[in-house]
From TrEMBL:
Keywords for this protein: Cell inner membrane, Cell membrane, Membrane, Transmembrane, Transmembrane helix, Transport
Subunit structure as annotated in this protein's UniProt entry: The complex comprises the extracytoplasmic solute receptor protein and the two transmembrane proteins.
Similarity comment: Belongs to the TRAP transporter small permease family.
The UniProt record lists the keyword Membrane: yes
Top-level taxonomic group: Bacteria
Bilayer topology term: Multi-pass membrane protein
UniProt name for this protein: TRAP transporter small permease protein
Localization of this protein: Cell inner membrane; Cell membrane
Organism: Stappia taiwanensis
InterPro entries cross-referenced by the UniProt entry: DctQ
One GO cellular component, as annotated: plasma membrane
Amino acid sequence: MTVEAGDVGAREVGAGETGRARPLAGPSLPYRLLELALTGLAWLGGLWLVGLMLLICCDVIGRSFFNAPITGVAEIAAFSVIGIVSLQLPETVLHNRLTRTDLLIEPLGRWLPRSAELLEGLFALAGLLVFAVIFYGSLAFLQKSLASSEFYGVQGVFTFPTWPVRLILVIGTAASIVAFLVRVLVHLRACRTGVRA
């Protein structure tokens, strides 16, 4: 029996079958909805990045040619980095695109696919636990910033409340936890079947 696996359509071909392939179950509706939601977050992060680039360019032009810099660009850029990463990370996790070295996992996947999937699953589980800790800490900071009216910037010059950025961080870490959980389940299933995810 041979198995051909892809991101969307996986096919299983029996030993005595000719011509027709029996499709395996594709992505479920909850997975597709999760993927759509995380793609939407990633798009928001991308649009935010484009807006930040335009703002910085306008500030440079205003500062260099008109001696009229835009107030608060440094503060906006500082919290934008946190927001953009928080919005784009969950989709990266879901599609297994985190930066890593394949020095060990690729050879292991060729010779011992189940072991490779187990290792991938443990990596995803470690990520889930790390982001659970980040989520817990971020939630506490969000509650604190809401209670104390905390703000970025210099009072009287430029201020911006911190709670929206902290809320985005909480949403991003929660979504990353869900994405890591999905990766754990995917790798455990692949470990059971012996087919690389």
